[in-house]
């Protein structure tokens, strides 16, 4: 378990940094550039250690019939395309490598005897990171709320690590809301009500960012939770709070009470058109990872499927879409939702969290580059998908055993 923890922390270590720190003229003389540059290599260290272990154990690839296999294929294709077609091969190959890092870790732990426990560990690490990130953003949000700082679409990360958009900050807060609410409602232990403590700051931060993608995710998550669990009196604590945040932050503050403003794409359509024009120049295999930033003057394309299309062309986009469709097939064809209702304890809690995270990130994928690129969304989505895929297989085995008896 310790080795798994170290590997996953290494994968997280590449967050909020990039290859450009290694290319800085002050690297390695400047201490901060050295720190950021070394962190940029952490996911590659995770790949190396995972590969050494996989070779030693002669572990076979277990994701051939798994949605994660489609994601892995998408990443491998992107790495090849990055070398052959990218205008900046070294940059593209770097981003392809860090994208693949979490999949190598999952490949490694899939060959262990306690795969489910290790997936839970990855999810616990993710929850802790999101809780820390949410707390780190609160001082800025409070200053803005009290009028002591100007409202901005960018929030500063701690320790000078850079900036995050309000959509990113809203995502941090919503993940905290998801795992806190699930534990507060689903667990049976008396101290479960302590999970209500993070909800207040998280709802406040979510409202203050006015992030429409996060607010949409909140609506999707609440609806999905009710679909899974049914109506429960405890929803009277979370439901009204969620409705108040969506109405106040999204409609009154962000849209100023105007529905057309609420539904606008904030200029995304212009970027999408520019991205599609680049896709037409290489429609089959795309331009490699980071292609939107390279070809669109550092612009982010803000759509997972267009991101996949511009990076890996039609072939890669099909693989990327197949990962989501394959997961949806497993959830509904294998009756994961009814199975989750019948569970109790930690297994039910973790499955609920995984389902809500997938629901939120799927809704987000139409307006952000969810999982098409190395980033926070990818590191949250991969363990959730792994748990749902594992559960579908284990559920089939359990039902098969019951029928034989």
Largest sheet: 2 strands, antiparallel
Shape: globular
Q: Assembly type of the shown chains?
A: single chain
Number of domains: 1
Helix content: over 70%
Strand content of the residues, in percent?
A: under 5%
Uncertain spans: 395-405
Chain-averaged pLDDT? 88
Kindly report the spatial arrangement of strands forming the biggest sheet: 1-2
> Which structural class matches the secondary elements?
mainly alpha
Compute the CA-based radius of gyration: 21 Å
Distance between the termini: 34 Å
Count of discrete alpha- or pi-helical segments spanning 4 or more residues: 17
Q: What is the strand tally?
A: 2
- The succession of helices and strands, N to C, reads HHHHHHEEHHHHHHHHHHH
3D architecture notes:
By secondary structure, the protein is mainly α. The chain has one domain (2-391). The protein is 71% helix and 1% strand. It has 17 helices and two strands. The protein has helices spanning 2-13, 31-40, 42-57, 67-84, 89-110, 115-145, 166-186, 199-209, 212-229, 235-254, 259-263, 268-279, 291-295, 304-333, 336-342, 345-364, 376-404, and strands at 154-156, 163-165. The chain has a two-stranded antiparallel sheet. The longest helix has 31 residues, at 115-145. The model is unreliable at 395-405 (pLDDT under 50).
Write the layout of secondary structure elements.
Layout (H helix, E strand, L loop, with lengths): L1 H12 L17 H10 L1 H16 L9 H18 L4 H22 L4 H31 L8 E3 L6 E3 H21 L12 H11 L2 H18 L5 H20 L4 H5 L4 H12 L11 H5 L8 H30 L2 H7 L2 H20 L11 H29 L1
Antiparallel strand pairs: 1-2
Helix pairs in contact: 1-3, 1-5, 1-6, 3-5, 4-5, 4-14, 5-17, 6-7, 6-8, 6-17, 7-8, 7-9, 7-16, 8-10, 9-10, 9-16, 12-14, 16-17
């Amino acid at each position: 378990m310790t080795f798994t923890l170290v590997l996953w922390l290494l994968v997280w270590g590449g967050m909020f940094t990039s290859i450009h720190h290694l290319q800085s003229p002050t690297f390695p003389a400047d201490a901060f550039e050295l720190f950021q540059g070394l962190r940029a290599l952490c996911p590659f260290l995770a790949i190396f250690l995972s590969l050494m272990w996989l070779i030693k154990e002669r572990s076979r690839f277990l994701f051939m019939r798994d949605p994660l296999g489609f994601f892995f294929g998408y990443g491998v294709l992107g790495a090849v395309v990055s070398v052959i077609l990218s205008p900046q091969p070294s940059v593209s190959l770097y981003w392809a490598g860090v994208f693949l890092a979490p999949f190598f870790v999952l490949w490694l732990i899939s060959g262990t005897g306690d795969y489910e426990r290790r997936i839970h560990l990855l999810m616990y690490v993710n929850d802790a990171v999101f809780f820390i990130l949410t707390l780190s953003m609160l001082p800025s949000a409070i200053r803005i709320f009290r009028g002591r700082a100007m409202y901005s679409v960018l929030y500063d990360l701690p320790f000078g690590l850079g900036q995050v958009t309000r959509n990113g900050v809203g995502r941090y807060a919503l993940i905290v809301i998801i795992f806190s609410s699930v534990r507060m409602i689903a667990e049976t232990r008396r101290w479960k009500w302590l999970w209500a403590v993070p909800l207040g700051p998280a709802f406040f931060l979510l409202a203050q960012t006015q992030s429409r993608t996060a607010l949409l995710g909140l609506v999707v998550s609440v609806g999905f939770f009710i679909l899974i669990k049914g109506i429960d009196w405890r929803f009277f604590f979370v439901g009204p709070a969620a409705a108040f945040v969506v109405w106040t932050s999204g409609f009154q503050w962000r849209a100023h009470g105007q529905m057309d403003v609420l539904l606008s794409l904030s200029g995304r359509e212009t970027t999408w058109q520019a991205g599609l024009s680049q896709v037409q120049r290489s429609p089959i295999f795309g331009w490699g990872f980071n292609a939107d930033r390279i070809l669109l003057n550092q612009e982010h394309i803000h759509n997972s499927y267009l991101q996949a299309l511009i990076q890996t062309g039609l072939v890669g986009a099909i693989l990327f879409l197949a990962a989501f469709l394959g997961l949806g097939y497993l959830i509904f064809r294998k009756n994961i939702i009814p199975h989750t209702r019948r569970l109790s304890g930690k297994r039910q809690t973790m499955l609920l969290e995984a389902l809500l995270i997938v629901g939120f990130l799927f809704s987000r994928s139409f307006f952000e580059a969810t999982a098409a690129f190395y980033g926070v969304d990818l590191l949250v989505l991969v363990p959730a998908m792994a748990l749902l895929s594992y559960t579908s297989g284990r559920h089939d085995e359990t039902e098969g055993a019951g029928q034989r008896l």
